[in-house]
Please model this.
Amino acid sequence: MAGGDPCGDKSRHEGYRKCHDGQSITGMSHIRLTHLKKCEHDPHVLLAVSKLFWSERKIGKCREWFQRTLKIEPDLGDAWAHWYRFEQLHGTKEQQEEVKQRCLAAEPHHGELWCSISKDIKNVGLNTEQTLKAVAKEVPIPV
Model:
């Protein structure tokens, strides 16, 4: 592993994680399988792939990759918020409720967007469900 990067290729890895910051992911369609295999344990890369499928309206694949992401890192609140927002737009009430219940069971505490909202002074005292809903409102819709 070069420089502590789980993939061993920091420059390429950073390119794939751009999507994590809400930036355009249209250029990610060239993701190489070999790179994904190297980074299969990085939840941020898996979340980026989820958002790629979301932008391409590949609903089933998107759900599958959200599940992969959260299997690797159930404490990643950003992934829960993205998946919940996705289900609000593309899923049924039952699918939304399932994601919410799984999030409540996981009690996430990490993620850039999750922490920016959960640690904001105006949000002191929010429980996990309230935080999930607040963060989901801030999730940018991939285009």
User: Anything to note?
Assistant: The domain at 2-138 is CATH 1.25.40 (Serine Threonine Protein Phosphatase 5, Tetratricopeptide repeat). Residues 1-27 have pLDDT under 50 and may be disordered. The CA atoms of residues 18 and 25 lie 8 Å apart. The radius of gyration is 15 Å.
